[in-house]
Specification:
The chain is mainly beta and 256 residues long. The protein has two domains: 134 residues, Immunoglobulin-like (Sandwich), CATH 2.60.40.640; 117 residues, no CATH class. The chain contains four helices and 14 strands. The strands form three sheets. Strands 2, 4, 5, 6, 8 and 9 form a six-stranded mixed sheet that branches. A hairpin with an 8-residue loop joins strand 11 and strand 12. The longest helix has 12 residues. 25% of the residues are buried.
């Protein structure tokens, strides 16, 4: 019977199970996620080589004019040494991980989750998936608020594959796409895209794409050649916050 149970456990039937219980499923980038990882033994004794926790999202990659959805690992953490779990035994391990500062924020098509897995030799590895809500830092939120104060509506949020010169350690960047529905830029811009780049405590580097609405003779050619787009980088600091709306207005106005 024991041998039969071991065979079943090797294919995941009656094997140990993992369940992550988060204390906070909503967290600001740079802050900590905490909780408990519970391991419940199955029908047979099993040796667990690792408990690993991964912070994961998805992003879009284009190839041959087709779009593919890929998983991107933002961070991976080992939270235990090798141990043995007896039948029906319950073990708990504390979980505390810092959300990397370049983690995309939740919204639009961007979903983020924690995946907890057990590494069990010669067996199907059990796993558990818990969605979390990642909130922007203060500087990021202030930028998003200022753009909306200027009459823009957030139309789409999506992570896309990007060359290394435009990103940090991750294979993608997160784009915030806005459309002007009121205010001084309505009718002037097709869209405004913002990407948050490097971030520190008091500074935030931003890439902005201003997509002007082409007009008059040659507008069709301008659209086809992307001559109506301006890409620029700027830095926002905590010192800019009292005058942030005006700073962004002047930059967008200059290239509209």
């Amino acid at each position: 019977m024991s041998l039969f149970n071991k065979v079943l456990a090797s294919v995941g039937i009656g094997a140990a199970k993992v369940d992550t219980k988060l204390f906070n499923s909503q967290v600001i980038v740079g802050d900590q996620i905490t909780g408990i990882v519970e391991i419940r033994g199955g029908n047979v004794e099993q040796e667990i080589a690792d408990i690993y926790v991964s912070l994961i999202t998805t992003y879009i990659r284009e190839s041959d004019d087709k779009k593919y959805t890929k998983q991107g690992v933002i961070g991976q953490y080992r939270i235990s040494e090798k141990f043995t779990i007896s039948p029906n035994e319950v073990k708990e391990f504390p979980l505390s991980i810092t959300v990397p500062i370049d983690t995309p924020i939740s919204g639009g098509k961007t979903k983020i989750w924690i995946e907890t897995g057990l590494d069990i030799k010669n067996s199907v590895d059990p796993s558990d998936k818990d969605y979390i809500d990642i909130l922007p830092s203060k500087l990021m939120q202030e930028v998003l608020n200022a753009v909306q104060d200027l009459g823009f509506r957030l139309r789409e949020v999506e992570c896309e594959a990007a060359p290394s010169r435009l990103r940090a350690g991750l294979p993608f960047i997160q784009e915030f796409e806005f459309v002007a529905i009121s205010g001084p830029f309505r009718g002037k811009l097709d869209e405004l895209e913002i990407v948050f780049l490097q971030q520190q405590v008091n500074t935030l580097d931003i890439m902005m794409q201003i997509d002007r609405r082409a007009r008059g003779i040659g507008s069709f050619l301008a659209e086809r050649l992307s001559m109506d787009e301006t890409n620029l980088r700027l830095t926002v600091t905590t010192g800019d916050l009292p005058n942030l709306n005006n700073k962004l207005f002047e930059i967008i106005q200059r290239y509209s």
